[in-house]
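We now fix the convention by which a protein and its fold are recorded. Here is one such record, which you should read through line by line:

>
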Amino acid sequence: MSNKIVVFITAASKAEAEKIATSLVAEKLVACVNIVGCVQSIFNWQGRVNNEPEVLMIAKTIKGNFDKLAVRVKALHSYDVPEIIALPIVAGSSDYLNWIDEETKNDDSI
């Protein structure tokens, strides 16, 4: 199985998503982030059902970066408990998967 993962992160606005995505890419914690326009999220929070518009980020990275990515997202995020969940990439274009490796190399991962 690949060491690559896709991370879903929701944000309150496009501006917040762009700020988080730019930091994650610049710091080489992810290779790429897609920002998906308005998604509607229905969830329980503080004892009530909420129905809110959000923006979804889809980040591609390596499994070894997840903990640092989560810490960074929490530091930049407006939510007390942001969604930060990872799914394995079970298959993909070898060129694309190699590109993820190259783009997520930093001094800490060498």
